[in-house]
Amino acid sequence: MDLKSAADEELARQSQAGSLEAFEELVSRYERRIYAFTAQWRCNPSEAREVTQDAFVRAFQAIAQFDTRRPFAPWLFAIARRRCVDLHRHFRPVSEDPLPDLPDLDDPAEVLARREEGENVWRLARRHLGDGQYQAIWLRYAEDMNVAEIAQALGKTQTHVKVLLFRARQKLAGPLRRAGRETPALAPATEGGSP
Known about the structure:
mainly alpha; about 0% strand; Arc Repressor Mutant, subunit A; globular; Rna Polymerase Sigma Factor, Chain: A; about 65% helix
């Protein structure tokens, strides 16, 4: 079986059976996304890198407990979220080394335009939303998760997630209109760093 075309849950099943290559493919698929998610917790780049690495280590250690009948992404994001919470509970200074640039295969002009628009919207969201609302909006729009997956990742009920999303959209409607946007829709976040 070609690992590149396998579903995440199949790769997790193979990882449970001892395939390091299958887990490495999962890391390859999710490394940028988990880094971007952890960076939005107001971490500096080295903290986000450390939390990302720790999340994958914890996921590897706990892969046997993953239920392959469920989606993999919310499970992994829940681990990353817990690592972020732990970091903030037990804050310790780390180096400020920048994250190495990852190759970008898109047209540079398109990338810059998308990045600038996305960064502006996410900065606006960060200023106007509390942590819970911001995390819910991030997972919904940057990670394209559904309500059930967001609930699993955040450790909340689906109803709570719906309320978080509704209130976040309400809070952002006015600032987005003032910023010249008609629709309170969020652009995807940049892949390599904090939104």
